[in-house]
Amino acid sequence: MSQAGFRIGNARRLRREWTRAEARLWLALRNRRLEGFKFRRQVPIDRYFADFACLEARLVVELDGGQHNDRIEYDATRTAVLESCGFLVLRFWNLHVLTEIDGVLHEISTALRSARS
What is the pLDDT along the chain (117 residues), one digit of tens a residue? Predict the structure, then answer.
């Protein structure tokens, strides 16, 4: 299988196997529901798949579960690579998305408005 085929297959698998927090956030982001910006899920950027990306605003939203407590260095490297590709990266804990979605959406909206101006 080619590298492109592997990446597409991997992205499709990630789109099928999502967390409750990803599903909840996606309901708020899809169909240009937030500030009129288009978001996509599991977007390949460099060697990673961004959980959510708005290409127009150069914004990536990453959701972290409990396993990320053990992956601090990996997440820092991932964020640095995404930023080096020209993206602003916002990270939220899954629990934060599930319990304080309004605050999460407010923070994302603020970043989108900044990108627009």
Answer: 555 555 555 555 555 668 999 999 999 999 999 999 999 999 999 999 999 999 999 999 999 986 645 678 899 999 999 999 999 999 999 999 999 999 999 999 999 999 988
70 by Cβ neighbours in 10 Å (0-12 / 13-18 / 19+) ranks as exposed
Which helix (H) or strand (E) is 115 found in, with range?
helix 101-116
Residue identified by tokens 């309901």 is 27
Structure tokens at 54: 């708005």
CATH of region 3-116: 3.40.960.10
Q: Domain locations in the chain? A: 3-116
pTM of the model: 0.84
